[in-house]
Design a protein that fits this description.
Layout: E1 15-19, H1 24-35, E2 39-44, H2 47-60, E3 69-73, H3 81-94, E4 102-105, H4 121-147, E5 159-163, H5 177-196, E6 201-207, H6 220-233, H7 242-254, E7 262-265
Parallel strand pairs: 1-2, 1-4, 2-3, 4-5, 5-6, 6-7
Length: 272
């Protein structure tokens, strides 16, 4: 007869790098990780935003030392993005960080919608750079840190989690072609990488409508109307909250039996 075992805390003392971790979902994931005893490493394009996020997190968790939350600048939108990633790698090593247990890629520009007739090669490339091209380049240069974490065990199974969107499953009228293609490509990339990088696990979290700064391009009244209208049709009765969505990332890290999956957190939007 099997015996009941004490459930392990699989995130305690684990090092987790959140690429572009100073947005709404990133902050929620970082907060959840700190609550579970993990060590959080953040990147952001702007030093001021990075400093502010680190400061807020340390205020929320005063029992944590500064070594539990660190940050580095990383510009994913420039033409020199690969050099920028190499600089991040150099700085991590310089600070004694030689292994990572988990990597989370959260980067995304404010949602760029285009009518089909307005799509150009330039707009296509710009929409793809941060969300897909820079994502693959980050994995390319950071995979040695995950391999250095050692073989997968029941206590810790190294992972990469990408961030897609529910538009890959459910089209949205009005200029979402590029974003649907990008989201679908991230789902495919995670499945392929799960094979290519095994036993490192790779998954994608696909949020639906979530109240984050990704909607900052809309004025407040339009944004509130969008959320209110959506809430009337969603089975949960509300749009997603970043703390809800953070749980999906934690699950991808903690469940060593999941890889090559798309984790959907979308208020039930695929049902209506």
């Amino acid at each position: 007869m099997s015996t009941i075992q004490r459930h392990p805390d699989k995130l305690a003392d684990r090092s987790v790098l959140l690429i572009a971790g100073t947005g709404g979902i990133g902050k929620a994931v970082a907060s959840a990780l700190l609550s579970r005893g993990a060590k959080v490493i953040l990147t952001s394009t702007r030093q001021a935003k990075l400093d502010d996020t680190v400061s807020q997190l340390l205020q929320l968790y005063p029992e944590k030392s500064a070594s539990h939350v660190t940050g580095y600048t990383l510009d994913l939108g420039s033409q020199s993005v690969e050099d920028n990633i190499k600089t991040l790698v150099t700085n991590l090593k310089k600070d004694g960080i030689t292994k990572l247990d988990h990597l989370i890629y959260l980067a995304g520009d404010p949602l760029p919608t285009f009518a089909l007739e307005d799509i150009t090669l330039e707009s296509w490339a710009k929409a793809s750079q941060v969300r897909t091209i820079s994502c693959i380049l980050c994995i390319k240069h950071l995979i040695p840190f995950l391999r250095a974490a050692g073989p997968a065990t029941a206590q810790c199974s190294p992972s990469i989690t990408l961030t897609g969107g529910s538009v890959s499953d459910k089209p949205i009228p009005g200029g979402w072609t590029l974003l649907a293609m990008i989201a679908a490509s991230l789902n495919g990339a995670a499945r392929q990488l799960a094979l290519d990088l095994k036993p490192i696990r790779v998954n994608t979290v696909a949020p639906g409508i979530v109240d984050t700064d990704l909607w900052s391009g809309m004025d407040e009244a339009a944004r509130n109307k969008l959320f209110d209208d959506a809430a009337k049709t969603l089975p949960t009765g509300r749009v997603g909250d970043v703390q809800d969505v953070a749980e999906s990332y934690l699950w991808c890290m903690c469940d060593g039996n999941v890889t090559g999956e798309v984790v959907r957190t979308n208020s039930g939007s695929l049902l209506v």
